[in-house]
Write a structure and sequence with these properties.
Blueprint lengths: L1 E5 L4 H13 L3 E5 L6 H4 L9 E4 L2 E4 L1 H11 L10 H22 L3 H6 L5 H21 L13 H10 L2 H9 L10 H9 L2 H18 L2
Parallel strand pairs: 1-2
Antiparallel strand pairs: 1-3, 3-4
Bound molecules: glutathione (GSH).
Amino acid sequence: MLKLYGFRVSNYYNMLKFAFLEKGIKFEEVHAMPNQETEFTSKSPMGKVPCIEVDGAYLSETGVILDYLEDISPSPALFPSDAFQKAKARELLRCCELYIELAARRHYGHLFFGEDINEAAVNEVKPVMEKGVRAISQLARFSPYLCGEELSYADIVAYHCFSYPVNVAEKIYDWDIISDIPGLKSWKETVAAREHCKTVDSEWLAALNEFQNS
Ligand SMILES: N[C@@H](CCC(=O)N[C@@H](CS)C(=O)NCC(=O)O)C(=O)O
């Protein structure tokens, strides 16, 4: 059985967990925190989570793992079948990852780990996120999912790319980023209503609660 390494507070971990559940692939969750010990970097070379174990071999990087899951378990498809539409789905999920999640991540140390505010990031991050918002507004179809009538990886990645950046936008910039993207609020509700999303969310929130009180 495939093993998923990481921890339930991690948004990238939750993307994979959501994908595993939607695809109906059996998997085992293995608790692991990011670290630079050789024992872990031998599995995940950058020391990040998530990574997966397949028959004693390891694979890291969420996007790469999603592609692998699509190859080993094509049904239900989580990318459009048309090559160009598939690339458009990737374009959209990449914008969410690079220009929303990765940009906002520069404030996680301050918001979630009690570090001093990153002054340089205060000025640099918002313009990146604003361009990300513009790109997503332009690319997303919201009918009702981001790429059309069916759930795709774009939805799975985007859903978890917004989870923490929403707090960054609100707390650092007094910015309601969700309402700046017409259609995003009801899309988020549509995704959140899916059974597998509910499972991931309830386990995420329980873990977050435990993490914040530890
Ligand atoms: N590019 C990686 C990003 C994963 C990532 O940033 N994971 C976080 C936890 S949510 C992590 O391991 N952070 C520790 C670090 O950056 O060293 C992926 O797509 O899987």
